[in-house]
Structures are given as structure tokens and as C-alpha cells.
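Run log // design_07
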């Protein structure tokens, strides 16, 4: 389906009021419209802004994939600081709401969303808090793999590797 992208900037449009399934469908539809050339990356970014505070894993993960594409193929070095600030402004509130540490009562959706946010904020937002969580996770994993939430491991290693140094590289090789 198609819709006027102006709705994405409307104050009356509230993604949080949609069901999780509808949030996922909305993101998938916007991506399809982008792929078909009917909408633009700015429309995806406007939609992503509406997801501030939303914890629906499949929707956040799909948005992360689109932002990965934008970051790697559409942005210049000059655009990076503004993009990084935007990523932090949109996704950090959700990360803060979830917290850095997993709780036993959490759902798989919450754990997976946290992992996606660590990767997104650490790699594309250059967020020091997400980077610190990734570093703590990897350090604990290197000491005792069973001591960390396995959901965070795959997201944390690329963040730590991207922000590491030669000494960390040597640790990885050891």
C-alpha cells in the first residue's frame, strides 16, 4: 500500500499506538516504497524518528538495516556527525528505557531489541554508553562466555572491534 509521506512528519501520527505487527508492516511497507523508488531515504528516516521509544524488535531491526544501508552507501564523511547525532536522538531513549543489562523477566523481544540498539548506537551513533556496554560484554565474554547474555555477544563484538586498537586485535587473535 502507499501513503502520503507527509503523514510521517505529522504530530498526530503515533507509531506507539500501533500494534507490534502493524509497526513491522509499516516499516516493511516503507522499505518497499523506498526500493520501488516511490519514497526516499528521508522518508525512512522520518518514519524512524516516529519509533523513538518503541521496543518492537522486528521493526527496530528492519530500521537498523535501512540505516546501515544509508550510512554505508548514501552518506558522505561530511554528513556523519549529523547522522550520528540523529541516530542517538532517535534510538537512545529506547536503549535507556530497556537498560544496559538484561533481566530474567525480560522477553526475547526486549533482549533482541537491546542487542540491535547496541549495534546501531555503537556503530552508527558513536554512542559512548552503547560502546561501553559492548566493551563490558566482550570483556566478560572473553573471561567466561557463560557469564553474559548471549543475545548481546553478536552485537557487541563488531562495536568493540570498530572502536578497538592493536592490543584488542591481539587479544582477539590469541
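design_07 sequence
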Amino acid at each position: 500500500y502507499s501513503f502520503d509521506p507527509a503523514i510521517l512528519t505529522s504530530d498526530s501520527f503515533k507509531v506507539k499506538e500501533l500494534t507490534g505487527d502493524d509497526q513491522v508492516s509499516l516499516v516493511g511497507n516503507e522499505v518497499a516504497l523506498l526500493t520501488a523508488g516511490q519514497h526516499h531515504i528521508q522518508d525512512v528516516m522520518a518514519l524512524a524518528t516516529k519509533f523513538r521509544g518503541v521496543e518492537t524488535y522486528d521493526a527496530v531491526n528492519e530500521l537498523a538495516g535501512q540505516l546501515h544501508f544509508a550510512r554505508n552507501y548514501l552518506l558522505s564523511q561530511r554528513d556523519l556527525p549529523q547522522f550520528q547525532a540523529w541516530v542517538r536522538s532517535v534510538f537512545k531513549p529506547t536503549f535507556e528505557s530497556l537498560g544496559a543489562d538484561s533481566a530474567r523477566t525480560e522477553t526475547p523481544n526486549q533482549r533482541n531489541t537491546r542487542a540491535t540498539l547496541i549495534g546501531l548506537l555503537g556503530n552508527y551513533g558513536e554512542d559512548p554508553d552503547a560502546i561501553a556496554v559492548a566493551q563490558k560484554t566482550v570483556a566478560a565474554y572473553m573471561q567466561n562466555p557463560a557469564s553474559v547474555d548471549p543475545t548481546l555477544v553478536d552485537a557487541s563484538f563488531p562495536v568493540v572491534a570498530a572502536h578497538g586498537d592493536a592490543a584488542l586485535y591481539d587479544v582477539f587473535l590469541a
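The chain has a mean pLDDT of 91.
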